[in-house]
Design goal:
single chain; mainly alpha; two-stranded parallel sheet; 4 helices; 2 strands; globular
Length: 116
């Protein structure tokens, strides 16, 4: 991703990224994102662009699937959303997965208690 988006990462930044559980920043802000302490407090939740002009999400999915088992294994992909997530956002994520031929995924929604 760094090569594609012309962002040079230091070995320390690559190591830090490799240990992160999740992230949500466009490539243009990734160095700033990696410079924040491990709590990520104070860094705005910008998200990964997934629109038709700048679909970095699709590129991330491609690179992730390629690196997962050399592209031959099928990872478990999970999409998490709740009732506040706009349908358009979920649709863009699913479209990015389909573009990469990742047609099997799980959708987790907000937990709701049993009706009384």
């Amino acid at each position: 991703m760094g090569v594609k988006y012309k962002v040079d990462f230091t070995p320390e930044e690559l190591e830090k990224f490799g240990k992160m559980g999740m992230f949500g920043a466009p490539m243009g802000k990734m160095k700033e994102f990696l410079a924040v302490d491990g709590t990520l407090q104070g860094f705005p939740n910008l998200g990964i662009p997934a629109d038709s002009v700048n679909n970095q999400f699709r590129d991330w999915m491609y690179e992730s699937l390629l690196s997962y088992g050399g592209g031959n294994a099928k990872p478990v992909i999970t999409i998490k959303a709740d009732n506040k997530t706009p349908y358009e956002n979920i649709s863009q994520v699913i479209e990015g997965l389909r573009d990469n031929k990742a047609n099997t995924y799980r959708l987790i929604t907000g937990f709701e208690g049993k009706p009384e």
